[in-house]
Write a structure and sequence with these properties.
Helices cover about 65% and strands about 5% of the residues. The chain is mostly helical. Helix 5 crosses helix 10. The C terminus is likely disordered.
């Protein structure tokens, strides 16, 4: 019943039951009018995907009407218009994705620029003095190690080297600043990440609830639909190209076989003529038969 009503609406107009007075000033909108959104008719309208998000495209300037969509789906011209509408939607979506991918590239560049760690705070006067004393001790011990090594006193030189290592460890502990390590760890935990689907900045290692909230958000789902549609459209287009290519190759092959068969038949006829036989179509009997050239000569005389 709905399909029949939709067909009547398309053929006779939805105002077919209005009175003459009601029809005055009435302008009927059909699904193939320019002011009707073809995107909404065939799949989805991108303007509906990002409402109240950073990527909000604003209201669609064309008409969205469920009844018109049903009329389109039940129309005998539906299949003829689907490729045209899908191509227009794919062109619009590709522009959206191109703009988004530019933002994603800029976001990657921002994240790639590593922030230089803050320089360590200067040591206090007390620590500076302790550091100078340690460095002087290490210098003296190294000089003694060199003298002992030249004198062949290996054991004594190794003993002094162990003292040098202990002093170096003390020096490292003196210059270390634990608070900087803590700041670095917090910065690592709060490092930003970029969503490759919708271009949003995320906090790496964020709570699962916040990550799930992003994935189920309008912007992420919307761009996911757009990207999926483009991939599907391109795959269908590539498949159609392959099928068309195979059909052309099959046609060429069939023509080649027909040509070879024709050439083979011509060669056979030439052989029979050379042997003194001529094919003739007998209009009285059922088909071609062969007669001797002598019989034709006799017939002609």
């Amino acid at each position: 019943m709905d399909a029949q009503r939709a067909l009547l609406d398309e053929l006779m107009g939805s105002a077919r039951n209005l009175t003459e007075e009601e029809k005055r000033g009435y302008r009927e909108i059909r699904w193939d009018d320019r002011e009707v959104c073809a995107f909404y008719m065939v799949r989805f309208c991108p303007h509906d995907l990002f409402v109240n998000t950073r990527s909000d495209l604003g209201p669609c300037p064309r008409v969205h009407d469920q009844k018109l969509k049903e009329s389109f789906e039940n129309s005998p011209r539906h299949d003829a218009y689907v490729p045209k509408f899908e191509a227009e939607l794919a062109q619009f979506c590709e522009k959206l994705v191109m703009d988004l991918d530019r933002r994603v590239r800029r976001g990657r560049e921002r994240l790639a620029q590593e922030v230089e760690p803050a320089p360590p705070a200067p040591l206090s006067t007390e620590k500076s003095e302790q550091l100078s004393v340690l460095e002087e001790k290490i210098k003296n011990l190294l000089e003694q190690v060199e003298i002992l090594g030249e004198a062949g006193k290996v054991d004594e030189a190794e003993a002094l080297m162990r003292k040098v290592e202990a002093l170096n460890a003390e020096k490292t502990a003196l210059t270390q600043q634990p608070q900087n390590d803590k700041i670095l760890m917090l910065a690592q935990e709060k490092k930003m990440a970029l969503c490759e689907v919708c271009g949003s900045f995320l906090v790496a290692n964020d709570a699962a609830e916040r990550t799930q909230s992003h994935i189920t958000g309008k912007q992420h789902i919307g761009y996911g639909m757009v990207r999926d549609f483009i991939s599907e459209f391109k795959a269908a287009k590539e498949k159609a190209r392959e099928e068309e290519k195979l059909a052309r190759e099959k046609e060429v092959e069939e023509r080649r076989k027909q040509r070879e068969e024709y050439e083979r038949m011509e060669a056979g006829i030439g052989t029979r003529i050379a042997a003194g036989h001529v094919p003739r179509v007998d209009m009285v009997t059922r088909g071609p038969r062969e007669v001797q050239l002598a019989d034709i000569s006799a017939f002609c005389t």
